[in-house]
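#structure-requests
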Amino acid sequence: MTPPDDTAAPSWDERLRGYREQLACGFPQVGEVFEDCMREALAVLSADGVAGYLDTARFLGGMGRGVEPVLAFLEEWPSIAVLVGEAALPAVTASMHALWKSPNAKAITPFLQTLAAVARRLPSRQQLQHYLDLTQEFTERTTGSIHGIHQTFASPGLPDFLAQAPTLLKQLSISGLRNWVDYGIRNYPNHPERQRDYFSLRSADSRAVLQRERRGTLLVDKERLLDLYLRGLWGDSTRLVPYPTDPDQQQRPLPYYDASGIRLPDVFNDAQGVAGIDR
C-alpha cells in the first residue's frame, strides 16, 4: 500500500488563507477584493515581491487610518510594479513611513490613490524616485512648526498636490512639475488658503505657471508611436525608458543603452518651430 503523499502542493484556498494570515487585516472590505488582488500580484511579482506587498499592506492596515490606504495599495501596487519594477517598493514604503511619522498621515491615502496614475506618466524607477523626492521636499517645506523645532501642523497644500499630480504630469515633465511646485511654496508659505488654491489649480497664477512650464514633447506621450517605428522598421522590441532631464542644463541630453532598455530624455524641447518629436 502506497503511503499518502504529504508533499502535495497546498490548494489555492489554503494558500489564500496563508496570505490573508500574513496580511493580518480584518477590514471586511479587504476580504471582498483580496482574492482578486492576490491573483494579480502573484502573476507579476516574485516571491520576495509578494512578501513585501503583504508586509506593506499590513503596515497600512495598522496605521489607524481606516481601510482606504490598504485598499488603494492592494489594488494598485501590482500594476505599478509592472511599470517601474517591484524594487521600487522600499522607496515607496519609506515615503509612506515619513508621512505617517509627521502631521501629514492623512495624505497617505491620496498619495496611494494617485500613485498608479503617476507611475503611468513616470514609467521608470528613476523618474518615480524624483517624484517621491519632490513629495518629501514638499512635505518638509510646507509642514508647520512651533519655533521651528517640532513639525506640528499638517501641510495645507500637500493633499491637493497629490490629488492633482496625475493631471499635472499629463502636461509637465518631472522638472517642470518641480518648478511649478517651487513657485507655489515660495509664494504662499504662510497663506494656507492661497496655498490650497494654488496646488488645487484653482488660482490664476497656478494655471499661468503651469502654462509657462509646459514645453517640448513628453516621451510618455510618443512612446507607443516610437515603439511602432522600432518594431516596424527594424524589428526591434527593446523597451524605451525615459530618464529625467533638466531643461535648463547646458549639455544636450543624449540617448543611451542600459540593462533596462533604450534610455531617452523624458522631454525633448521644440526648437526653431520644430516639435521635439520631429527633431
